[in-house]
Amino acid sequence: MTDPFSLFDSWFTEARTTELNDSNAMTLATANAEGQPSARMVLLKGHGPEGFIFYTNQQSRKAGDILANPKAAILFHWKSKRRQIRIEGQLSTVEEAKADAYFASRSRDSQLGAWASDQSQPLADRATFISRFEEMKQRFDGQDVPRPPHWSGYCLTPDCFEFWQDGAHRLHERRTFTRNNDEWTEGLLYP
């Protein structure tokens, strides 16, 4: 049997050579406490057998969904490779040290933007946001920008994978992997 993490690594490595923009972009689908779904693009910032990591403002809509319902799905679609991978699982917050290290690796303007943005909240006009960004530039002038207390990362621990490969005449291949305790069961689905 194939290990789904090894297969992901193989496909992801190939996609990084053919997808010119954001080969690490993935759709993140969440649902709130009432079951209302929401999907948006986020960037994969780490992955391995522990799961798939992305970062965000913890006051955003997605973070509110995650707090109410920590189950989610992510989807990678690489049009140049005619492939996609769906992954479903549980979300948990990454460790503080990991969030600090990733935040420190971001560009200074991205760090300042994290402080300036009330992500997902109504904004009267763009000038207000730009003004807040300039205020953050002044506030942290001459010093390192610390990670905001409301900004961190999440790790999706997979329960299942589906690897989809395009086929001629819609004769696609769909391989699944489902976790049962610490073991993975492999299967196929009709296209």
Task: Please characterize this protein's 3D structure.
The chain is α+β, with helices and mostly antiparallel strands and about 190 residues long. The protein has one domain (about 5-105, about 150-190): Pnp Oxidase, Chain A. Helix content is about 30%, strand content about 40%. The chain is built from five helices and nine strands. Strands 1, 2, 3, 4, 5, 6, 7, 8 and 9 form a nine-stranded antiparallel beta sheet that branches. β1 (about 25-30) and β2 form a beta hairpin. α4 (about 110-115) packs across α5. It is elongated, with a radius of gyration of 19 Å. The model has no long low-confidence stretch (mean pLDDT about 95).
In short:
It is built from 5 helices and 9 strands. The chain has 191 residues and is α+β, with helices and mostly antiparallel strands. It has a single domain (4-107, 150-189), classed as Pnp Oxidase, Chain A, CATH 2.30.110.10.
Secondary structure layout plus pairing:
Layout: H1 4-18, E1 25-31, E2 37-43, E3 46-48, E4 51-57, H2 61-68, E5 71-78, E6 83-93, H3 96-105, H4 108-116, H5 126-139, E7 151-165, E8 173-180, E9 183-189
Helix pairs in contact: 4-5
- Examine the coordinates and then state which fold CATH places here, giving the name of the CATH topology: Pnp Oxidase, Chain A
Task: Give the low-pLDDT segments.
Answer: none
CATH-wise, what's the superfamily?
Electron Transport, Fmn-binding Protein, Chain A
| Rg for CA atoms | 19 Å
CATH architectural group: Roll
| Number of distinct beta strands | 9
Fraction of residues in helix: 25-40%
Give the averaged pLDDT, no decimals.
96
What structural class do you assign from the helix and strand content? alpha+beta
Largest β-sheet summary:
9 strands, antiparallel
**Continuous helix count:** 5
